[in-house]
Amino acid sequence: MPGRHPLKGGAARLLGSHAGADGKAFRRVFDAVVARYGPLDALARLEASRAAAAWVSYEAAQRALAAARRARERGKGRRPDARTIERLSRRAGLQEAGYAAAVARVEALAKATRAADVAAAFRERA
């Protein structure tokens, strides 16, 4: 986005403003992915950013589901019905699957990058 500083570590700015709790969660997950898979190239950093954004969405879905369950169990007045709880549960499951797929893409890219680096190192020695 024009006028905004780039994010630390080459992360893509996918949340608009990374200043709040969602931005902190994004940073925590992005840093964890980079720490797990090592230095990443530009494409892998973009995928790591997508994985971090997927985690933020997953956390939001889980929070909404927990709030709806709590309101259904202990709330007064209008409470969510079973169908709403089921819909929120399905949404949380889909978000979790999206996060798992994003992490798998990062892992595949990191593996491919490492394999290319090893092959290049062997060519240099030969």
Task: Give the arrangement of secondary structure elements.
Layout: H1 21-37, H2 42-74, H3 82-125
Helix pairs in contact: 1-2, 2-3
Which characteristics define this entry?
single chain; 126 residues; mainly alpha; elongated
In brief:
The chain has 126 residues and is an all-alpha fold. It contains three helices and no strands.
Task: Describe the structure in your own words.
By secondary structure, the chain is mostly helical. It has one domain (20-125). The chain is built from three helices and no strands. Helix 2 packs antiparallel against helix 3 (82-125). The longest helix is centred in the C-terminal third of the chain and has 44 residues, at 82-125.
| Strand percentage | under 5%
Helix content: over 70%
Largest sheet: none
Weakly predicted, low-confidence segments: none
Return Rg in Å.
19 Å
Encode the helix/strand succession as letters: HHH
